[in-house]
C-alpha cells in the first residue's frame, strides 16, 4: 500500500475522477488517494452551487470549453443511471440594458462555436419558461444546465472507487517530500511511482515542493449563499445575469436546487486565509499576512478590475444587498424571504503573480514524477471527468 503506482493527494471531485479514470485505463494499477479531512466533500467539491454547467461561457480554445459539455453529459448520465438527485431545470441568462445585450451576443456566439445547445429568446418567450424572470429585450436559454447534490455525487463516485480497488485514506495529510521522492503524511510515508496533486486550496503550495507553480499563487474567494424560505417550485429555471467577462465569476444568480428550492449567490469576496469559512476557523497568521499583502498589491495595481470587484463583492455580506441584486433578475424578491445564509464555499483561484491577473482556464503542470492540478476552478465539478482524461493521457499503460 505504501508504494502505489499512483499516489493522489486530495479527495475532492478532481482527485476522485483522476483515480477512477486511471483505474479504467488499467485495472492492475495500485492507486492510493489521500484526503486530509475526516469527512467527504469538506471543501469546494461539497460546497459549490451544484450546477452542471453547459459550457457556453468559455472562449473556444480553452480547456473549459473543451471539457464542460462532455463533463455535463457524463455526470448527467451518471446521476440518471445511478438514480442520484438531479433537477434538469435549465437556465436563463438575462440582460439589464443595451450593453448587456452585446455581451449576451458574445456568449451566444461562444455557445455556438462550442456546439452547446443554447437559444436566444425574446423577453416574452423567457417569461413563458420562468414567469418571474426580468430581462431587457432578450434572454439566453440553456436547457442542459441542471442541478445535482455535489456531496451525493462525490460519495457515489468514491464508493465506485473503493469497489474498483482504489485505496482512499481520510485524515491523511500530505506534509512534504524528501529528495528521494518519499511522500510524508501526518502518520505515514509513501514511495509512489507517480504523485498527483489535486489539493484544491493548497495545490500551489504542494506544487512548489516539486519545483512547480513558480509563477502562480492561489487566492481564496469566498462564495456566500442566501437561501429562500419560499416553498419549492417558486422558481422554475436558474436565472443568471450576463457576467462581467473580464473576470471568471458569474455574478449573483438565482439557483434552483435539486429539491426545487432557490438560493442566491455565490459571492466572490476575497478571502483573508485559505480556509476562511467562518469566524476565525482554520486561521493561519502566515496565510493572512501573505494573502493580505497580495490583495493590497492587487487593490492598487492589478491587470484586472480587482478593486472594483472587491468593493462590489464586500457589499454582498449584506442580505439586503444580495436581495437587491437578485431583484435585477426576477420579480417578487423580498428580503424577508431570504434570511438564511448557507454553507460558505471557497474558490481556489490561481493568480499569475507577475502578470497580476487571475488565471481563467484550468492549469496543469508536471513532469515524469509528479502532476499538479493548479486551477480547478468552476466549472471543474461539471468538467471533472474529461479533465481527468486530459490529466491521465500523458501516461503510457
Ligand atoms: C462557491 C463555489 C461554487 C461553485 N459552483 C460550481 C458549480 O455550480 N458547478 C461547477 O461545475 N463547479 C462549481 N464550483 C467549482 C467546483 O466546486 C470546483 O472546481 C471543484 O470542486 C474542484 O475540485 P477539487 O477536487 O480540485 O477541489 P476540492 O474539492 O477542494 O478538493 C481538494 C481536496 O484536497 C484536500 N487537501 C488539500 N491539501 C491536502 C493535503 N495537504 N493533504 C491531503 N489532502 C489535502 C482538501 O481537503 C480537499 O478535500 C464552485 C466552487 C465554489 C467554491
What count of structural domains? 1
Largest sheet descriptor: 6 strands, mixed
Under CATH, the homologous superfamily reads: FAD/NAD(P)-binding domain
Low-confidence stretches are none
Oligomer: single chain
Q: How many strand elements? A: 24
In angstroms, what separates the terminal alpha carbons? Answer: 20 Å
Large-scale geometry: globular
CATH architecture: 3-Layer(bba) Sandwich
Calculate the mean pLDDT score and round it: 97
The helix tally amounts to 10
List the bound ligands: flavin-adenine dinucleotide
**Computed Rg:** 21 Å
Structural class, please?
Answer: alpha+beta
CATH class: Alpha Beta
Major sheet: arrangement of strands: 9-2-1-13-24-23
CATH topology type: FAD/NAD(P)-binding domain
Helix-residue proportion? 25-40%
Beta-strand proportion: 15-25%
Description:
It is a single chain. The chain is of the alpha+beta class. The chain has one domain (6-392): FAD/NAD(P)-binding domain (3-Layer(bba) Sandwich). It contains ten helices and 24 strands. It has helices spanning 13-25, 63-82, 98-113, 123-129, 150-163, 203-209, 285-300, 306-314, 319-327, 380-392, and strands spanning 6-9, 31-34, 51-52, 86-87, 91-94, 119-122, 138-142, 146-148, 167-169, 174-177, 183-185, 189-190, 194-197, 216-223, 226-228, 238-241, 253-256, 262-265, 269-270, 338-341, 345-352, 357-358, 364-366, 370-373. The radius of gyration is 21 Å and the shape is globular. Bound molecules: flavin-adenine dinucleotide (FAD). Flavin-adenine dinucleotide (FAD) is lined by residues 9-15, 34-37, 42-45, 47-51, 53, 173-174, 198-202, 223, 266, 345-347, 376-382.
Amino acid at each position: 500500500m505504501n508504494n502505489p503506482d499512483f499516489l493522489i493527494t486530495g479527495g475532492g471531485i478532481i482527485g476522485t475522477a483522476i483515480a477512477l479514470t486511471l483505474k479504467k485505463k488499467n485495472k492492475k494499477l495500485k492507486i492510493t488517494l489521500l484526503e486530509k479531512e475526516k469527512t467527504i466533500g469538506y471543501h469546494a467539491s461539497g460546497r459549490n452551487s451544484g450546477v452542471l454547467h453547459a459550457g457556453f461561457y468559455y472562449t473556444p480554445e480553452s480547456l473549459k470549453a473543451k471539457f464542460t459539455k462532455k463533463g455535463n453529459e457524463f455526470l448527467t448520465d451518471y446521476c440518471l443511471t445511478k438514480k442520484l438527485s438531479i433537477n434538469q431545470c435549465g437556465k436563463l441568462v438575462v440582460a439589464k440594458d443595451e450593453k448587456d445585450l452585446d455581451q449576451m451576443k458574445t456568449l451566444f456566439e461562444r455557445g455556438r462555436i462550442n456546439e452547446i445547445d443554447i437559444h436566444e429568446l425574446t423577453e416574452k418567450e423567457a417569461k413563458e419558461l420562468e414567469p418571474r424572470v426580468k430581462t431587457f429585450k432578450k434572454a439566453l436559454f440553456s436547457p442542459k444546465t441542471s442541478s445535482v447534490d455535489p456531496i451525493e455525487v462525490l460519495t457515489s463516485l468514491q464508493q465506485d472507487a473503493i469497489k474498483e480497488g482504489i485505496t482512499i485514506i481520510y485524515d491523511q495529510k500530505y506534509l512534504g517530500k524528501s529528495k528521494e521522492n518519499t511522500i510524508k503524511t501526518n502518520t505515514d510515508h509513501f514511495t509512489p511511482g507517480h504523485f498527483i496533486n489535486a489539493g484544491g486550496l493548497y495545490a500551489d503550495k504542494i506544487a512548489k515542493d516539486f519545483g512547480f507553480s513558480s509563477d502562480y499563487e492561489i487566492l481564496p474567494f469566498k462564495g456566500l449563499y442566501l437561501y429562500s424560505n419560499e416553498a419549492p417550485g417558486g422558481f422554475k429555471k436558474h436565472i443568471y445575469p450576463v457576467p462581467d467577462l473580464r473576470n471568471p465569476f458569474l455574478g449573483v444568480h438565482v439557483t434552483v436546487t435539486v429539491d426545487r428550492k432557490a438560493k442566491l449567490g455565490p459571492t466572490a469576496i476575497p478571502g483573508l486565509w485559505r480556509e476562511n469559512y467562518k469566524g476565525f476557523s482554520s486561521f493561519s497568521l502566515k496565510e493572512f499576512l501573505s494573502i493580505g499583502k497580495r490583495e493590497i498589491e492587487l487593490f492598487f495595481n492589478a491587470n484586472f478590475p480587482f478593486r472594483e470587484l472587491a468593493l462590489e463583492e464586500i457589499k454582498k455580506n449584506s442580505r439586503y444587498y444580495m436581495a437587491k441584486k437578485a431583484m435585477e433578475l426576477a420579480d417578487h424578491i423580498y428580503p424577508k424571504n431570504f434570511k438564511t445564509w448557507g454553507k460558505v464555499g471557497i474558490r481556489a483561484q490561481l493568480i499569475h503573480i507577475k502578470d497580476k491577473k487571475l488565471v481563467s482556464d484550468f492549469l496543469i503542470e508536471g513532469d515524469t514524477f509528479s502532476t499538479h492540478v493548479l486551477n480547478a476552478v468552476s466549472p471543474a465539478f461539471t468538467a471533472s471527468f474529461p479533465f481527468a482524461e486530459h490529466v491521465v493521457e500523458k501516461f503510457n499503460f
